[in-house]
């Protein structure tokens, strides 16, 4: 989908709907194969290979899969932090110690999320991560990410900046979700790299 028009046309909501519709057409086998490829690509990145702590998330539905990556990181002895959505859409964090450490949580009428079931470490825990995996639905040639629209990760990025933390920012996507241009706002911060099943693209 080579969206490359002006920043406000088509708008974020339209783009998000189109990308999510394309994901929903994927088969379970498509999602599983992509997840394995994504884990292999991500684990090969120097930033990930050298990380002591990674802030990530558990993919849901047809999102690019993360569980294979989370388990591989744990096997390597990496501390994996996962988000828990707060009522104001900010994120708290907890530690991932395997699939039995996850709780299925529904926030209002939204999709169910998998969140850490154990101790909450506070919203600032993310500032101690060496790598932060950001969810998204697309990224453009500038490294600007189109998110899911809740604003939670805008707060995470602002918190990192306020703390002077500079973890590697990575987004995991399907190949077709790397596009020429997405709508951007002045506060948007580019990611360092996008990982897709077919490769890695760096932006800075």
Automatic annotation (TrEMBL):
Q: List the catalytic activities from the record.
A: (6S)-5-formyl-5,6,7,8-tetrahydrofolate + ATP = (6R)-5,10-methenyltetrahydrofolate + ADP + phosphate
The cross-references to NCBIfam families, in alphabetical order and at most eight, read: MTHFS_bact
Classification via InterPro entries: FTHF_cligase, FTHF_cligase-like_sf, NagB/RpiA_transferase-like
- Return the similarity comment: Belongs to the 5-formyltetrahydrofolate cyclo-ligase family.
PANTHER family named among the record's database cross-references: 5-FORMYLTETRAHYDROFOLATE CYCLO-LIGASE, ATPASE INHIBITOR/5-FORMYLTETRAHYDROFOLATE CYCLO-LIGASE
User: GO MF annotations for this entry?
Assistant: 5-formyltetrahydrofolate cyclo-ligase activity
Keywords in UniProt for this one? ATP-binding, Ligase, Magnesium, Metal-binding, Nucleotide-binding
Which cofactor does the UniProt annotation name? Mg(2+)
Q: What is this protein called?
A: 5-formyltetrahydrofolate cyclo-ligase
| Enzyme Commission number | 6.3.3.2
Any single Pfam family the record assigns to this protein: 5-FTHF_cyc-lig
Signal peptide span: none
**To which species is this protein native?**
Streptomyces salinarius
